[in-house]
Amino acid sequence: MNERESITAYAHSIKKLKKECSDKGLSEDEFRKLYFESLNTIEEGDNKLSNISRSFVTKRKFLLILLLILTIYSIKYICCNVLCNLQELIYPGLRLIRQISIPFISLFPALTELYQEPCLIQNPFYTIIDMDCWPCSTVTNVHQIYDPQPLHQQHAAPFIYETDQEQVDTKKLRNLYFRNKELFDKESSKIVMNNKFHLAPSNVFQNQQDIEDRNLYVWKINNLNLARILRQLIPRAKVVPKFGQSTERFIIIDSSHSDFNIPDTECNFAFLLVLSGTRTVTLYPAEECKHQCKSIEVDLKESYLLWYNWWYWRPVVQQSNGNSTFVAHVGSYC
């Protein structure tokens, strides 16, 4: 209906209403007075609604501006709190995900083949802002314990203990590799030598003399099937809980007797298990905690395990004057 039709319909309605009022005995002057009073009432109602609407819009704009100002002034505080609380939930969340996923991975080990990390590059400049360093600030030495229990404490101090681990030298590793050569070559085909070169496991284990020829080998294993095979020689340590251990493991073979850094692990609760040989390990505080925490040293004998929290400590194996080849296993859990 257009404007002309609306006006025509309105005029027709007024005429009809006027006729009904006349039939009821209402004079023309009374009808006109009643008509204008009704128009005034409608106009006053419209003005009142308009005022209420304008007042509501004004208040809403004021509240939005006030909220924006408060957000701008408190954004730093909010971000700091969110990041702090989020960091506390990262590892419990990862632990829960692992507990849920382990039954599926146990039934379908091939699922671990879907996890690949060729494009992951560690950021050497990554630091945590305002990191709480009190857990390492009070640590002055590494204690030895005699009754190890699985740990999930975020701020526990590093410690060592003697395990029931049998000696695993390069000959045993070599035999394990050749018994499962096809699987090792498929799933873990690269060994880092001297932090410079990548070699195939067959090139490393082909000659026993080459392994002991003053080199450092770091063999990363990140597959469930290989982890199960490795368990034949290296059972799960008592300090490691049944659920939560990372699939990622490192086998370190050092015949160079030089110092080297222990690789960074996937989870923060990490351990270094000596399979053969003896070395001194220095735990340096993380970059964020150097101003509060001190370096500590510990002598690791064969079959001893060093437990530490990767958030606060960076272990470095010191050089040695001995002739024995150092073999170690590095793992972690969340």
Automatic annotation (TrEMBL):
Nucleus keyword on record: no
Any one of the GO CC terms: Golgi membrane
Transmembrane segments annotated in the record for this chain: 62-78
Principal location: cytoplasm
Membrane topology: Single-pass type II membrane protein
Subcellular location: Cytoplasm; Golgi apparatus membrane
InterPro entries listed in its UniProt record: BRAP
Keywords linked to the UniProt accession: Cytoplasm, Golgi apparatus, Membrane, Signal-anchor, Transmembrane, Transmembrane helix
Protein origin, superkingdom: Eukaryota
PANTHER family assigned: BOMBESIN RECEPTOR-ACTIVATED PROTEIN C6ORF89
This protein's name: (apollo) hypothetical protein
